[in-house]
Amino acid sequence: MTITIKKIAEICGISRGTVDRVLNDRGKVKAQTEELVKKVANELGYKPNPAGRALAAKRKNLVVGVLLIAEGNPFFDEVIRGIRVAEKEYSVYGMRIVLKSMKGYDVEKQCRIIDSMKGEMNALILNPISDERIKAKIDELVELGIFVVTLNNDIENSRRACYIGSNYFNGGETACGIMGLLTNGKAEVGIVTGSFKALGHKQRVEGFKHIIEQKYPEFHIVDYVENDDDDILAFEITKEMLLKHPDITAIFIVAGGVYGVCRAVLSLGVQQKLTIISFDSVPTTVEMLKKQIIQATIYQHPYTQGHKSVDVVFNYLVHGLQPNKVQHILKNEIKILENIN
Amino acid sequence: MTITIKKIAEICGISRGTVDRVLNDRGKVKAQTEELVKKVANELGYKPNPAGRALAAKRKNLVVGVLLIAEGNPFFDEVIRGIRVAEKEYSVYGMRIVLKSMKGYDVEKQCRIIDSMKGEMNALILNPISDERIKAKIDELVELGIFVVTLNNDIENSRRACYIGSNYFNGGETACGIMGLLTNGKAEVGIVTGSFKALGHKQRVEGFKHIIEQKYPEFHIVDYVENDDDDILAFEITKEMLLKHPDITAIFIVAGGVYGVCRAVLSLGVQQKLTIISFDSVPTTVEMLKKQIIQATIYQHPYTQGHKSVDVVFNYLVHGLQPNKVQHILKNEIKILENIN
DNA sequence: TTGTAGGCGTTATCAC
DNA sequence: GTGATAACGCCTACAA
């Protein structure tokens, strides 16, 4: 038999309303009654029924804001698809999503967009820039009672309820591990990173280096260049790097610009002698995997990241459930030509 | 504004009961009224509210049977964990799970266990033996109105509503692809399969061969032995195989017995010259990955398989939703030491 | 501080 | 054939 508020009320000889007040900390209950209700609820193992809650929640008007740095970054296409599918699933609960997208790492701009959204918003899914001002902005929202979830990039010391994304350090470790297996532990590595400033990119490189130290003494990093996640820039600096270091046998592409790097390799005709590892599986990367320019790419469940972030918000807003993990870390998977689709 | 049964009833000038009868094909409605209701529901885009349904479903007593060939197969430990977690999540909807486990491929025994369960069961999650008699049994259950889902092994021509599991053929392809990358496309391969009779094992080998033909002319299969998913047998036949074919440079472990194979390799001291690819990541396999005996193993989301199968059943029983895919195929992921946990 | 009652959307059971 | 009504469990406004 399931334990309901009604049943607890009967047992305690009081009304449903009072039990509700106790169980949801709404105050205005005599200490004595409160204690009794809590004891009974505990002993009987009361579990609120999400369906009941969901039904009652319909009377609220729930709006979830989403702000992503997605423009010009095809990785987010799948994230957004996950968000949209979840939106549809939950639309019957009367929950709406307002999605905004921005380009580049302008902190003030991100703050301004957040401000413009905060009026009618019950929760925010944010892909934040790593900056103190954004941290402050998150804390301000939480203070206002808005539920905040960080997506794809965490700000650990902020008051966000939860982070959904990948483990960048382990992503770098995984990249190094697979590169080690493919090169028999010997390689002269050129690293092409997105931005020295981006936290995740830095962490990937650190993870990569960590495995070199631990396992691959014959790996040498011969150069380390930055492409700003831009394909044209990637094309140019990769060409330059390869000409400067003809001894390079492997390239670790840390973030965006994968297509530009590959085109540079192709234009120099050196694809045969290179092992290339990248991240994500956007269409151009898949294309290069098929051409066997890239040997392996590391996949971080973008669709799931999007869907999961909405799940977490939904469970909080509709069911009052706090996320069961502060960090929802998705696995780094290795994709090769055969298991890419 | 959301469209509810009540609203449709008002618009049509009839009662909620009648609308319900039409929308759920319960019969006993005048053709004319039926048509009207359907038209209005369609035009307004009526979407049943799952919360309402869930609440109403509590009055039913839902029992889900699960029958797995799990004994002695640690792969299923994670599958079962997924099932148990889902059970807990859905327990508030008054859905119970009765899980039975069996050992080995005795068709009659599986039929008998199914029969013993079918009394009070609304749905069955079945890990079926590939056999005509099991197909017939599934069809019999469906005839009785029981919702059947196959797990981890499909019987395609049966009347099961849905299959949840992996793509075995692509698993074999992926194994070959990663082996090709690790060996530079040159290998003398020994294959250790679970059972020649198991459909999935056969399909993996076919997938493996398919990529050899397509991509790796310098791969040669020098031997092909069967271990019945038993570690002791695996140990012995692998030893035998390696002694008989000292030219072997790679081993493809198609199914169980991974630990036995690795112990054989270790006992002969030939681990340095071998590339070994396996499936799943049970504890002993992870151990061998850590010892660098196995270079890569292919992972098939066992936890998700278990959880998903319960999801599908729940959505049908409580929300009346047919699964949106007949086959729910999980991806083959490549795990190496760095991304195993 | 507590109780009452109605509504969220769906379904089952009666009565007509 | 159809309609009315009472659940399912929770929440909230209002009355006491």
How would you name the CATH homologous superfamily of the largest domain in chain A? Answer: Response regulator
Strand content of chain A: 15-25%
Q: Helix tally of chain A?
A: 13
Sheet with most strands: strand arrangement of chain A: 2-1-3-4-5-11
Helix-strand makeup class of chain A: alpha/beta
SSE string of chain A: HHHHEHEHEHEEHEHEHEHEHEHEE
Termini Cα gap of chain A:
46 Å
Kindly state the percentage of residues in helix of chain A: 40-55%
Q: At the first level of CATH, what is the class of the largest domain in chain A?
A: Alpha Beta
**CATH-defined topology of the largest domain in chain A:** Rossmann fold
Oligomeric assembly: homodimer
Shape of chain A: elongated
| Largest beta-sheet details of chain A | 6 strands, parallel
Count of folded domains of chain A: 3
Number of strands of chain A: 12
Radius of gyration of chain A: 25 Å
- Going by CATH, the architecture of the largest domain in chain A would be 3-Layer(aba) Sandwich
Would you kindly provide a written description of the structure presented here, covering whatever features stand out?
2 copies of one chain form a homodimer. Chain A is α/β, with parallel strands linked by helices and 341 residues long. Chain A has helices at 5-12, 16-23, 31-44, 50-57, 75-90, 107-117, 132-143, 168-183, 199-215, 231-244, 258-268, 283-290, 302-319, and strands at 62-68, 95-101, 123-126, 147-151, 162-166, 187-193, 219-226, 250-253, 275-279, 296-299, 327-330, 333-335. Chain A folds into 3 domains: 5-46; 57-165 and 304-330, Rossmann fold (3-Layer(aba) Sandwich); 168-299, 3-Layer(aba) Sandwich (Rossmann fold). In chain A, α1 (5-12) packs across α3 (31-44) and α10 crosses α11 (258-268). Chain A is elongated, with a radius of gyration of 25 Å. The interface between A and B is medium-sized, with 34 and 34 residues. The structure holds a DNA duplex (16 and 16 nucleotides).
